[in-house]
Design goal:
Number of helices: 3
Number of domains: 1
Largest sheet: none
Order of helices and strands: HHH
Shape: elongated
Oligomer: single chain
Helix content: over 70%
Strand content: under 5%
Distance between the termini: 66 Å
Number of strands: 0
Radius of gyration: 18 Å
């Protein structure tokens, strides 16, 4: 049984690192694309940047949720819970911004 527990811990740690790296990579790529689109005066720059940020934060949020599997004491649970709440609220705000930006873009196209 101990072998299964240790195997699960290793798999979870690898998955956490993988999700963290993917999230950071998505954020970096989205930022670089946003800079290029800004200088090209692309009207969808804000929308594309917000979508990239939301995707990156969702990977980071996934890693924090996985991190709850390996927590040992209550203090760690509080810290990870706070991080999850912060990232979830950021994701919610970004999705709200995406919805507003898409509405504004559709209104401009109809005019």
């Amino acid at each position: 049984m101990e072998f299964l527990h240790e195997t699960l811990m290793v798999i979870v740690e690898i998955a956490i690192l993988l999700f963290e790296y993917i999230g950071v990579l998505v954020l970096i790529i989205s930022g670089i694309r946003g800079v290029f689109q800004y200088f090209r005066k692309n009207e969808f720059t804000r929308l594309n940047l917000a979508k990239g940020m939301a995707m990156g934060l969702e990977f980071k949020l996934g890693s924090e949720i996985l991190r709850t599997v390996v927590l040992r004491d209550f203090k760690e649970v509080l810290i990870v819970g706070g991080i999850i709440l912060l990232r979830a609220s950021l994701t919610f705000l970004i999705h709200w911004e995406i919805k507003n930006e898409e509405t504004n873009t559709n209104d401009k196209m109809e005019v």
